[in-house]
Specification:
- The chain is an all-alpha fold.
- Helices cover 52% and strands 0% of the residues.
- The protein is rod-shaped.
């Protein structure tokens, strides 16, 4: 493909896969005027690891591209961090579906409330050593914590009081 303008090749119907086989960088294809889309790049077999790192600088948000881009798992496996995924607006629900742990999400910037919204059970947070107070602040009910194995003492230390628990039909 040497000697041809890349835009000429794109206009001629050459797919991104042909460039990958010729060791042409994804960034070059994406930066062409009238060039290839992220969907073309992905279909051409370029992995997330080829779009991340020194000199590449694609954010998780750019690679997400409204669902046509890379999944949270593909980006994580390609070298992106949970914090990058958080900044790229991947939801806690999406990450839960890819078997990420609650502690990973929390350490990457997700709140306990976002994890609750994302479908994490209180038992999953307990397994990852979250305190009852953190779950209370994130919107979990006392009865959810009891079902997860938290003790009455842990609930009390976490700020749950008897009247609130009674209201939840806990006692």
């Amino acid at each position: 493909m040497a000697g041809y303008e890349m835009t000429f090749l794109r206009e001629g119907g050459i797919e991104a896969k042909a460039f990958r086989e010729a060791v042409i960088k994804a960034r070059d294809l994406l930066e062409l005027e009238g060039g290839y889309s992220l969907q073309d790049i992905k279909a051409g077999g370029y992995g997330a690891n080829e779009l991340h790192g020194p000199g590449k600088n694609f954010s998780a948000a750019e690679l997400r591209d409204g669902g046509n881009g890379y999944s949270a798992r593909q980006l994580f496996d390609g070298g992106y961090t949970i914090q990058n995924l958080f900044e790229g607006q991947y939801t806690a629900h999406e990450l839960r579906l890819y078997a990420f742990k609650a502690r990973q999400l929390f350490d990457g910037g997700y709140s306990v409330a976002q994890m609750k919204e994302g479908g994490f059970l209180a038992s999953q947070l307990r397994d990852d050593k979250f305190m009852a107070e953190q779950l209370r602040e994130g919107g979990y009910l006392g009865k959810e914590l009891t079902k997860a194995g938290y003790t009455v003492s842990e609930l009390r230390e976490g700020g749950y009081d008897a009247s609130t628990l009674r209201e939840e039909s806990f006692l």
